[in-house]
Amino acid sequence: MTEHQVQIEEGDEDGTRVLRLSGDLSVQTLGKVEPVLARHDAGVPLKLDLSDVDRFDTAGAWAIAQLQVRMEAAGSALELSGADSRQRQLLETVTAALPQPPEETPRRRGLLEMLDALGRATVSAGLFLAELSHVLGLFLGRLARSLLQPRRLRWTALVAHCQDVGWRAIPIVSLMAFLIGVVLAFQGSVQLRQFGVEVFVVDLIAISILRELGILLTAIIVAGRTASAFTAAIGSMKMREEIDAMQTLGIDPAEALFLPRILALLLMLPILGLIANLMGLFGGLVMSWIELGISPAMFITRLVEGTSIDHVIVGMVKAPVFAIIIGVVGVHGGMKVESNAESLGRMTSASVVTAIFAVIVADAMFSIFFARLGM
């Protein structure tokens, strides 16, 4: 027999399946032995004869242990024959080292469990809000220090982020607002034509765009593209331990990373909101002219005479708040990234969802607030 060879004989004894192994049962012969053991029907009792096995290592013991676990799960038994004490001890050691599947305990759905889940969710939400408040405090503190010492502000980074956040977002924001204005004009004309008051479509478009949809949809788009960008950029730096290196060099991450990004949002979101308002009104003007025959001059006259400046103020007041929400959520998500790519993807998605949800909640609170003020 050549080196590292194994022979397998199959037979039956008293109705029991028998496998006789001879030669080496080791890692070198595992590729030949393991498929034979895997083909065996786990529900049929098996006798494994190891009396002629010369060499036996942990790889061979693992193959037998796997077969034994599979047969026990099927309700049958594996009988070992001819194994010496060393082989049996090695097999017992390998079997004990096999990973055990976690026991699935049935989840109870009683009142106490529901209260426990609610309490845990409440505590988790409170901790999350506390972390966001911490990031907001860092931003406000660094902003105040930069106002007192303007040389500390990283102007190059601020301009670069303003370009990314604002200038590069103008096309998508403009297109979105234009289409929203077109849709509002078309749907409004269909409904108002039934009552013969098509001219009021101008008021519908103006109030909807200036008060709510212009800045809200702009903030949602910015949250989708900017919050994810902030989280991905800062998270990648955290994965590569660049933030730790910055702290070692005496560079404040909040001043170098948080302040330029959030301040750029704070400066650019009102401008994007204004552009969205203009493009939304332009889209409504075009569709009103096509669908209702309202000329641009009549549209502008009705817009100026029938729309209060309060609607513009209500819409634009929301922009700085939305900007801070999006920026704080984005940089917080980046700082929560761990040292793996899965965490980066998870936190990027979570930042987008959280920022959009927070913007919508803030808009609802603004609506209630201004309704109470009578604006």
What's the structural blueprint in terms of helices and strands?
Layout: E1 6-13, E2 16-25, H1 30-39, E3 46-56, H2 58-74, E4 78-81, H3 85-97, H4 111-148, H5 155-165, H6 170-192, H7 201-239, H8 242-248, H9 253-291, H10 296-306, H11 309-335, H12 341-373
Parallel strand pairs: 2-3, 3-4
Antiparallel strand pairs: 1-2
Helix pairs in contact: 1-2, 2-3, 4-9, 4-11, 5-9, 6-7, 6-9, 7-9, 7-11, 7-12, 9-11, 11-12
Describe the protein's architecture and organization.
- The radius of gyration is 35 Å and the shape is elongated.
- The protein is α/β, with parallel strands linked by helices and 375 residues long.
- The protein is 71% helix and 9% strand.
- It has helices spanning 30-39, 58-74, 85-97, 111-148, 155-165, 170-192, 201-239, 242-248, 253-291, 296-306, 309-335, 341-373, and strands at 6-13, 16-25, 46-56, 78-81.
- 32% of the residues are buried.
Produce a short descriptive summary:
This protein is of the alpha/beta class and 375 residues long. The protein has helices spanning 30-39, 58-74, 85-97, 111-148, 155-165, 170-192, 201-239, 242-248, 253-291, 296-306, 309-335, 341-373; strands at 6-13, 16-25, 46-56, 78-81. It has a 4-stranded mixed beta sheet.
